[in-house]
Amino acid sequence: MDSVDCKIVNQLQEGLPVCARPFDDVAAQLDIPVDELLARLQRLLDDKVLSRFGPMYNAESMGGALSLCAMQVPPDRFDAVAAQVNAFAEVAHNYERDHLLNMWFVIATEHPAQSAVVISDIEQQTGCRVYDMPKQEEFFIGLKLAV
Amino acid sequence: MCKPLDAIDRRIIVATQAGLPLLAEPYAAIAAQLGLQTDEVLQRVAALQADGVIRRVAAVPNHYALGYRANGMSVWNVTDDRIAELGRQVGGLDYVSHCYQRPRHLPLWPYNLFAMVHGRSREDVEMKVGAIADLLGSHCRGHEVLYSKRILKKTGLRIKE
Predict the structure, then answer these.
(1) Using CA of residue B62, residue B65, residue B67, residue B73, what is the dihedral sign?
(2) CB B152 within 8 A of CB A82
(3) Under 8 Å between Cβ of A114 and A74
(4) The dihedral of CA B89, B92, B97, B99: what is its sign?
(5) Are A94 and A82 in contact (CB under 8 A)?
(6) What is the pLDDT of residues A75-133, one digit of tens each?
(7) Is the pLDDT reported for residue A147 higher than 80?
(8) Domain ranges of chain A
(9) If you write DSSP's letter for every residue of chain A in order, what string do you get?
(10) Which of A109, B71, B101, B121 could be disulfide-bonded to A137 (CB atoms 3.0-4.6 Å)?
(11) A10, A66, A101, A143: best mutation site toward chain B, by most B Cβ within 10 Å?
């Protein structure tokens, strides 16, 4: 990554305007042609420096629901339970963490009521209690990683 | 929650949820793909952003690739009557990404404030967690940092076609 790539990563985290030619202003600020900006952006995605580029959708505003859930999974069944949990399309992320509550996953559903159904199915299939921790207040989302 | 999405909104979301085409005129490409006018796509995307359905049109960095290899989910037991004010302060720190108030599950889980802390090393994360502890002071009755050991699954939100 050169200094132009770093500036692209920093600037594109801020968001682009919604207009016919959204890349023009950033390219002008960086003093490079739009084609070069797009080629660099493609390379940053190919190299997985960026995990995605585009509209960041907010599930709750689409009428859906996101919930963080935690489970205490017996270590000897951990991988089997992970496979059961991951098999649900509604499970968007799942992490193993170093705690008594050792499995943490996010359930994303289009309709809030679906989340309770998924939780109850997971409890039934795995025999583990799901601790549901839906957000009650959002203080900030997003991160500015300086590179 | 705002007005429900109509069928055209949903088609636009399905077409863009994996990302925007990397073209000088990306919305024209989406419009062509969906058989819509570019202006209509632009108006609808702008309306979705105004309604908060789209947070922003932006790049999402890969923390690991950028050298932020350590991240800790810091969790805090904060006095209920101060959490609104303190949560905003913690959320405003530039090394904190997601910051939420969540329900406690006593006695196992006494924590009501979650702040994801990103750093270049675990020491870096611990230092930043220490700064949050100083900020919360006596309004915090305990905290822990949970590190991820493994990503078991990671996909974005997907709505069905």
Answers:
(1) positive
(2) yes
(3) no
(4) positive
(5) yes
(6) 999 999 999 999 999 998 899 999 999 999 999 887 888 999 999 999 999 999 999 99
(7) no
(8) 3-46, 59-134
(9) --HHHHHHHHHHTT-B--SSSTTHHHHHHHTS-HHHHHHHHHHHHHTTSEEEEEEEE-GGGGT-EEEEEEE---GGGHHHHHHHHHTSTTEEEEEEESSSS-EEEEEEESSHHHHHHHHHHHHHHH---EEEEE-SEEEE-------
(10) B101
(11) A143
Is the pTM here over 0.90, yes or no? no
- Partner B contacted by A117 (CB < 8 A): no
Q: Tokens standing for A82?
A: 């992970």
Count CB neighbours of A1 within 10 A. Answer: 15
Q: What is the largest CA-CA distance in chain A?
A: 58
Chain A 57-96, residues with CB within 8 Å of chain B CB atoms: 57-64, 66, 68, 70, 82, 85-86, 89, 91-96
Instruction: Report the chain B residue with the minimal C-alpha distance to residue A99.
Output: B146
A121 CB-near residues (< 8 Å, 6+ apart): A88
Give the Cα separation of A121 and B154 in Å (integer).
20
Instruction: Count the neighbouring beta carbons within 10 Å of the beta carbon of residue A29.
Output: 11
Residue B36 CA to residue B15 CA, distance in Å, equals 12
CATH code assigned to A59-134 = 3.30.70.3460
Helix axes A34-46, A3-12, angle to 10 degrees: 90
Contact B95, B128 (CB under 8 A): yes
